[in-house]
Design a protein that fits this description.
- This protein is 22% helix and 32% strand.
- The chain has 584 residues and is an alpha+beta fold.
- Strands 26, 27, 28, 29 and 30 form a 5-stranded antiparallel beta sheet that branches. The chain has a 4-stranded mixed beta sheet with strand order 13-14-10-17, with no helix packed on it. Strands 12-11-15-16 form a 4-stranded antiparallel beta sheet.
- A hairpin with a 2-residue loop joins strand 22 (404-408) and strand 23.
- The chain starts with a strand and ends with a strand.
- 25% of the residues are buried.
């Protein structure tokens, strides 16, 4: 191993590592660690944490400048280990200590030592004894610092990494709540965009118009602020549309297409739900009708509420009503006529500012329909049909716009609404303004006829077949079945049964001929545009020596209306009533 040398900091003479005093000037040399010891010791880079050999000024990993105590730096330089121009810092205390040590060392030098020359302790260059800086390397002999070089890279300040503290429980709870609220808001907005869409709001409004049990006042706005909007004032509008379902369907489509429902109802945007979603309502026109009667002491109520005192003369007494929404209204009039109390009702669809006549007359009339059917006048049950399907009303109070229908097994007949005019009780009053109507109520019917001087009211049933048509249809198909006369054609099992039965008779060689005759006993309305029929089939079979006659009764047969025709759906349950043979 080669010998390592230092320089005397006093005279610059080259001195071996093992010397304690300079052999040239006798200066006591500072104790230094051996190069091997220096090479085996390490510092830690404060910037990146890499191990650095003792005496290195720059980190070999990140290049950061290392801070080394001044004494060790001087020793490293003397050993030849320091090669750059690093900046060293020393405090005032170290300076004083170094100055004190130098004085002691100079006092301990042998008296025979002679100073010949002073050398720079940094580079060993000869310098003047009174010099402040080394003119070779610029070393400051007073502060013992190297000159600052702008090109020398400065070590980057080391920032200590803060240790992240664990999140507090309260903070976690708050953040969790905020997260849940955010998700809820997003979900609410997505739901609201669908629920409060224009088309969905229109569907809810029109569905409410069909259902009188639903309060739709929140969806209605009047054309005037003086009109009260609540469940009671809107209910007549719902009652009208409950009777006109197809009109509501048409209305919904018009509103979705941006059109008005009719001349009196339109869709408007009025405010917002939750400040986010447009709010749509129906703007409905209001009316102020007038009611009249031919008796001054009459009491008139509208939907059960007294309209107030009537004024007038000469059999014309009336009163102007308050604002109302359009719709279906029930009026009742009670009058004293020759000591007798007469009461009449009228059901009216109000769609204009017109006059409603509530003049009272009496009439006797008969209602014919299905046996055991219930008769309703102005939505009030007034009687039940007998086993023959008849009921007679004597001296019954008649008013304009009376409505009559029959209810059977939950099925409602078509409404008869021209009774008063058909009875000729009001033919002398032709003023058009005295009659209430709307586009859905203008259909006239021939439901009122006369038999032997008595008026007869026969409500029609949707899909109900007449007895004559039922007999003709069944007669033809029992004699010669046609698959076009059956629902589902040849796939109808009842067609197959009749066809198979007739084919068997045709092949019977012992039978000369056969014939059938149908007698209709009763017809009832059934659901789905069908008629329920009870009937008998009289069979006649001709043989050589005798004739066989049989009667089979069928109940619950169904005939379905198909356009203008009727088809056999089922023939019903058959039961043999009688069978007899007659000699020829």
């Amino acid at each position: 191993m080669s010998e390592k040398n230092n320089f005397c900091p006093n005279c610059g003479f080259k001195v071996s590592n093992d010397k304690t005093f300079c052999p040239n000037c006798g200066y006591e040399l500072p104790k230094t660690e051996s190069t091997d010891d220096l090479e085996n010791k390490f510092n830690i880079c404060p910037n990146c944490g890499t191990q650095v050999k003792l005496g290195e000024v720059f980190c070999p990993n990140c290049g950061a400048k290392l801070t080394i105590p001044e004494k060790k730096l001087i020793q490293a330089k003397v050993l030849g280990k320091q090669t750059d121009n690093s900046k060293l810092s020393a405090d005032s205390t170290d300076k004083k200590e170094n100055s004190s040590e130098d004085d002691e060392k100079s006092q301990s030098k042998p008296s025979h030592a002679k100073k010949v020359q002073v050398f720079c302790p940094n580079c060993g260059h000869p310098i003047k004894p009174d010099a402040t800086f080394c003119n070779n390397c610029g070393y400051n002999l007073i502060t013992k610092e190297l000159p600052k070089a702008s090109s020398t890279p400065e070590a980057q300040p080391v920032t200590s990494q803060k240790v992240r503290q664990p999140m507090k429980l309260r903070t976690k709870i708050l953040l969790s709540i905020l997260g849940v609220l955010l998700i809820a808001l997003i979900g609410f907005y997505a739901w609201g965009s669908s629920y409060y869409s224009k088309n969905n709001q229109i569907d809810r409004i029109t569905d409410g118009l069909r259902n009188t049990k639903t309060d739709i006042s929140q969806y209605i706005i009047a054309d005037t602020s003086t009109m009260k909007v609540n469940d009671n004032t809107v209910k007549p509008l719902q009652q009208y549309y409950q009777d006109h379902q197809t009109t509501v369907t048409s209305m919904a489509q018009k509103l979705k297409d941006g059109e008005s429902a009719n001349d009196h109802i339109s869709l408007i945007q009025n405010g917002r739900y939750w400040l986010l979603f447009p709010k749509y309502q129906l703007k409905v026109q209001t009316f102020q009708p007038q009611v009249e009667t031919n008796h001054g002491d009459s009491v008139i109520t509208m939907n059960g509420k007294n309209v107030g005192k009537l004024t007038g003369s000469d059999n014309k007494f009336g009163k102007k009503l308050g604002l109302v929404f359009p719709g279906k209204y029930h009026f009742t009039v009670k009058s004293q006529v020759e000591g007798r109390t007469l009461s009449a009702t009228s059901t009216t669809n109000i769609w204009a500012n017109k006059t409603l006549s509530m003049d009272i007359e009496t009439q006797t009339f008969k209602v014919k329909s299905v046996p055991k059917g219930e008769v309703y006048i102005n939505d009030k049950k007034v009687g039940t049909l007998d086993k023959d399907g008849e009921i007679t009303f004597k001296s019954y109070p008649i008013t304009r716009n009376m409505e009559l229908y029959v209810l059977y097994n939950g099925i409602k007949s078509e409404i008869v609404n021209d009774m008063a005019s058909s009875f000729d009780d009001f033919t002398d009053e032709s003023d058009e303004d005295d009659y209430y109507s709307d586009d859905a109520s203008d259909q006239e019917s021939d439901d009122v006829t006369q038999e032997n001087g008595t008026y007869v009211v026969q409500p029609k049933w949707k899909g109900l077949i007449s007895k004559d048509d039922a007999k003709s249809l069944l007669d033809d198909n029992y004699h010669d079945p046609d698959d076009d006369s059956f629902v589902n054609g040849s796939a109808n099992k009842w067609y197959g049964q009749i066809k198979q039965q007739n084919d068997r008779w045709d092949k019977d060689d012992s039978m000369d001929s056969y014939d059938t005759d149908v007698t209709i006993e009763s017809i009832y309305p059934d659901k789905g545009n069908q008629s329920k029929v009870n009937y008998r089939v009289n069979y006649t079979f001709e043989y050589d020596d005798h004739t066989k006659k049989q009667v089979v009764e069928y109940t619950g047969g169904t005939l379905k209306k198909d356009g203008d025709d009727y088809l056999i759906n089922t023939i019903g349950d058959g039961k043999l009533i009688s069978s007899r043979d007659e000699d020829n």
